[in-house]
Specification:
Layout: E1 8-11, H1 13-19, H2 22-31, E2 36-37, H3 38-45, H4 49-61, E3 65-72, E4 77-81, E5 85-88, H5 96-125, H6 131-136, H7 148-169, E6 205-206
Helix pairs in contact: 1-5, 2-4, 2-5, 3-4
Biased composition (Low complexity): 194-206
Organism: Georgenia muralis
Protein name: Helix-turn-helix protein
Length: 213
């Protein structure tokens, strides 16, 4: 599989609106765990294969997913999430419709992250997670006082570490012995409205979503 992970996927208003659909967000998220067909995704999400096929084509049209070459048949295609940084520009959310689309996507994405963490907790309670994996996994939260610049520096440091690990495991598809798709959730934000908010820097606001290589 050729990597496009270091390429940038800049979303315009049309692409953002295309993603602002709960089922499409769930399809995109599901494909980050590995390739699947419309039928497989329909069974996973409780939808008809006709519905998933339609929404998969819309995601592919806007560059969120792609067909897996040399796999599947003309009737049953395999799809995978593209490995690119997704950048949402300020222009894309400069209109009411753009902001509404981002809100729909953002709410569904956050809901999926909570569901994923809750699903892991349930597996742990049922002793379904093998010992080495249970010991390696971590859930943590911490609170500290910092400036906006310090928070930006921390996030940049963490992103550099994550990027290095993406480079290390690049090319894996989750079928290698002893491997599994791993989800790392990162959120860092002020817990209350800062007393004085500096002027936002010019440029693009960035949201990153990467598929498991």
């Amino acid at each position: 599989m050729s990597s496009t992970r270091h390429e940038e996927h800049v979303l315009d208003v049309a692409a953002l609106k295309a993603l602002a659909h709960p089922l499409r967000t769930r399809l995109w998220d599901a494909l980050m765990s590995g390739p699947a067909t419309a039928s497989q995704l329909g069974q996973l999400l409780g939808e008809s294969s006709g519905a998933t096929s339609y929404h998969l084509r819309q995601l592919a049209r806007h560059g969120f997913i792609e067909e897996v070459p040399d796999r599947g048949t003309a009737r049953e295609r395999f799809w995978r999430a593209t490995e690119r940084e997704t950048r949402i520009t300020r222009d894309a959310v400069s209109t009411p419709s753009g902001r509404a689309a981002l809100a729909i996507f953002g709410d569904e994405w956050l809901k999926l992250r909570f569901e994923s963490a809750a699903r892991y907790q349930q597996m742990r309670r049922q002793d379904l997670v093998p010992g080495p994996w249970a010991g390696a996994a971590v859930e943590m939260a911490t609170t500290f006082v910092a400036t906006a610049d310090e928070l930006a520096e921390l996030v940049a440091d963490l992103q550099a570490v994550i990027e290095a690990w993406h480079d290390r495991v690049e090319g894996r598809d989750g079928t290698e012995p002893g491997t599994s798709p791993v989800e790392l959730q990162l959120r860092a934000f002020p817990r209350s409205i800062p007393a004085a908010t500096p002027t936002a820097p010019h440029g693009a606001a960035t949201t990153e979503h990467r598929s498991q290589p």
